[in-house]
């Protein structure tokens, strides 16, 4: 996700522990498919780091990462993040060249090619996008093998991949259509999409592929929980936490990408992180869910929500007294401490 709103906030001295200091969990992990437009905004990278923490803690089983940004560096960067976090076995799917935002972005290429004293810091396969499956096919593979009603999908970029999933037909992974497969296998869909606050405008994740977003909100057969722009815009990730707690700085791909995205210092809005937190830790009630209703996407890309009995959509609300605890939790989970 990419947005233009930037706000520098004061750093709160919160615990930020290095990855690896993760408590083991005893409960059964939730199966997750993560769909991201990584490469457009840095919050996708922070959100992915949260998922690594949950994976290490046994809270989730991250079965696939699917990329909706149509540039091959997005795939190569995701692979770098996986391998750096010792999770190179997590499969990646790619939207392909016909997806949205075919530019390279502001950090993927810079991080992949980063050099110190004339030597490249990271190894990367820049041709990987040509070698991975199309995103919706990988989603079908994971869903086809999953128990009924067991998969949580987290989509923090464009709706392109999941719209293609809905439109897909039977294949080697399932005899069900995409819509039937989703209805049978997906427990819940969590999205960062839309803007439901005062003075709404066409939000980036929606407007970049508004036809796909419209398809998803009209046709998705199960429950959808959406975090709008106005939620993550009020919560800022403290950049000093990265500086304080990752001594490798430029040699860490997450920090390297953060430094490249915008000139430091800056505290970034946490749009995508809100969906990940609510999807995995909704029982902690960091956010309030609306009553059931319907999200509609207008021709200009603006989104509206109205309560409606029997509706399948819910939007998130943020209370002021929850902002500090949420920032604390973001700092912990991005840093690797469950």
From TrEMBL:
It holds the Pfam family IU_nuc_hydro. The lineage of its organism: Bacteria, Pseudomonadati, Bacteroidota, Chitinophagia, Chitinophagales. The keyword Zinc does not apply. InterPro entries: Inosine/uridine_hydrolase_dom, Ribo_hydro-like. CDD domains: nuc_hydro_2. Residues 1-24 form the signal peptide. GO terms for molecular function: hydrolase activity. Keywords: Hydrolase, Signal. It comes from the Bacteria. This is Nucleoside hydrolase. Residues 32-264 form the Inosine/uridine-preferring nucleoside hydrolase domain. The keyword Repeat does not apply.
């Amino acid at each position: 996700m990419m947005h233009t709103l930037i706000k520098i906030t004061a750093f709160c001295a919160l615990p930020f522990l290095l990855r690896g200091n993760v408590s083991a969990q005893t409960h059964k992990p939730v199966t997750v498919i993560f769909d991201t437009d990584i490469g457009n905004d840095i919050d996708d990278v922070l959100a992915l780091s949260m998922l690594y923490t949950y994976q290490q803690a046994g809270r989730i089983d991250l079965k696939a990462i699917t990329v909706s940004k149509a540039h091959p560096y997005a795939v190569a960067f995701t692979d770098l993040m996986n391998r750096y976090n010792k999770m190179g076995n997590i499969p990646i799917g790619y939207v392909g060249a016909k997806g949205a935002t075919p530019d390279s972005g502001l950090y993927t290429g810079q991080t992949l090619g980063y050099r110190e004293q004339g030597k490249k810091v990271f190894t990367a396969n820049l041709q990987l996008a040509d070698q991975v499956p199309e995103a919706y096919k990988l989603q079908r593979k994971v869903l086809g093998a999953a128990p009924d009603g067991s998969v949580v999908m987290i989509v923090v970029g464009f709706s392109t991949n999941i719209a293609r999933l809905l439109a897909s037909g039977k294949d080697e992974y399932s005899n069900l259509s995409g819509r039937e497969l989703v209805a049978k296998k997906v427990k819940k869909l969590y999205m960062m999409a839309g803007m439901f606050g005062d003075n709404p405008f066409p939000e980036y994740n929606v407007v970049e592929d508004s036809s796909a977003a419209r398809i998803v909100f009209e046709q998705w057969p199960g429950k959808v929980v959406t975090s709008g722009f106005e939620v993550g815009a009020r919560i800022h990730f403290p950049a000093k936490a990265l500086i304080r707690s990752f001594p490798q700085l430029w040699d860490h791909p997450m920090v390297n990408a953060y430094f490249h995205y915008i000139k430091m210092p800056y505290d970034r809005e946490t749009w995508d992180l809100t969906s990940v937190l609510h999807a995995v830790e909704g029982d902690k009630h960091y956010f309030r869910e609306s009553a059931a209703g319907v999200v509609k996407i207008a021709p200009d890309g603006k989104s509206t929500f109205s309560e409606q009995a029997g509706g399948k959509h819910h939007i998130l609300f943020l209370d002021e007294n929850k902002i500090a605890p949420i920032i604390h939790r973001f700092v912990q989970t991005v840093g690797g401490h469950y």
